[in-house]
Design a protein that fits this description.
Blueprint: H1 9-40, H2 43-58, H3 62-66, H4 81-84, H5 89-110, H6 116-151, E1 154-157, H7 164-174, E2 178-181, H8 188-204, E3 208-212, H9 215-220, E4 225-228, H10 235-242, E5 247-252, H11 255-263, E6 268-271, H12 288-295, E7 302-305, H13 313-318, E8 324-326, H14 328-331, H15 336-348
Parallel strand pairs: 1-2, 1-8, 2-3, 3-4, 4-5, 5-6, 6-7, 7-8
Length: 351
């Protein structure tokens, strides 16, 4: 660092700017670090962010701190309405990432002449934070989706209906938090448009939209995940394309497929058919006892599917089935909202 012993008025002003922005950058980094630690439990990100804080702390020189009161800051304590409006973890992550990035840019510019090493450090960390922000947002979104899967026991699968959007909104109002959308016959353009409309509804009610089979439409509609059957895209390829911010569910009905799905890192499994079902006429029911055997060691969410209706849910619950997937029961209902409420109550009732 140059001119550290012979400081003039301009130098003191610059040191004061650097001091203030080193504080801002380290404060913002601490917010991100604590979210990575307590919100996500991601040690890798905790270590990276902590390291940035330590590097900036090491370079927070005494001359910067001594300049702190050179000029009284008349703007001290000013706030903005947007600070009050931050109510979600996404807003907190983004605002503090921006705080760090902006502070580091100021440091980079003002330290260029006096402390070239600090300018270089600020530039390098700033570019790292751009990537970390995206990673933390993706991981946070996935964690939210994961919690919805764990905490909710009713998974509704759509069928083609003229008033499909109306039905979906009714069951979302009732409290359903997981929707899988199946495409039947239409153009890709229409299917994408419909998926976007359903995604907007699900977002409104803080619910998940899972797209059946069509990874391209899942990506284009910003759905929360995809569900894959035995003849669909393989799990490994789907994960490479989707990344780790999206949910991937797998249909499986035997020990090998279940084991492979779990080892491959799927987020949940649909197992069935439990009973005979009109939507899968060619598939022979597995039956309750077989499913009990298949699922006894599963440690991720799994949903029983196939022929499940409100009148057999209590029987499934008595046999230890906690989560179910429904199609026709709600899609064909004259009052989908009321039926969904009754089914949710039945699932939450302790036997």
């Amino acid at each position: 660092m140059q001119n550290s012993n012979n400081t003039n008025v301009d130098d003191l002003r610059i040191y004061q700017i650097i001091d203030a922005n080193l504080d801002r950058a380290r404060e913002g980094l601490r917010v991100l670090e604590d979210w990575a630690r307590f919100g996500l439990g991601k040690e890798k990100y905790v270590k990276r962010i902590k390291n940035f804080r330590q590097i900036l702390g090491k370079n927070h020189l005494k001359v910067y701190k001594q300049s702190r009161n050179h000029i009284y800051d008349k703007c001290k304590g000013l706030t903005h309405q947007e600070q009050i409006n931050r109510k979600t973890f996404e807003q907190i992550i983004s605002s503090n990432s921006a705080r760090v990035q902006e502070a580091l840019r100021v440091i980079e510019e003002f330290s260029r002449l006096h402390n070239h090493e600090l300018s270089k450090i600020a530039s390098e960390i700033r570019y790292e934070i751009y990537t970390i922000e995206i990673d933390l947002l993706s991981l946070s979104k996935y964690k939210n989706s994961e919690e919805i899967l764990k905490e909710n026991d009713l998974y509704v699968i759509t069928d083609q209906r003229a008033n499909l959007l109306e039905i979906i909104e009714e069951i979302l109002i009732a409290g359903v938090k997981i929707i899988q959308h199946r495409f039947k016959t239409s153009t890709d353009k229409n299917n994408l448009q419909e998926a976007i409309q359903i995604k907007n509804l699900c977002k409104k009610y803080n619910s998940l939209l899972i797209i059946n089979d069509r990874l391209d439409i899942a990506l284009a509609s910003n759905a929360d995940g995809i569900h894959l059957g035995p003849d669909d895209l393989d799990l490994e390829t789907a994960r490479k394309l989707l990344g780790y911010s999206k949910i991937i569910g797998i249909s499986a009905n035997n020990e090998t497929d279940i084991s492979n799905a779990i080892k491959g890192g799927c987020d949940y499994i649909g197992i069935g058919p439990v009973f005979e079902t009109s939507t899968k006429k060619s598939k022979k029911p597995i039956g309750i006892e077989k499913i009990k055997t298949l699922t006894k060691d599963i440690n991720i969410p799994w949903f029983a599917i196939g022929g499940i209706k409100s009148n057999n849910i209590s029987h499934l619950k008595r046999n230890g089935f906690k989560k179910v997937a429904l199609v026709s029961q709600l899609m064909n209902s004259e009052d989908p909202k009321e039926d969904a409420i009754m089914i949710l109550k039945e699932l939450s009732h302790e036997n």
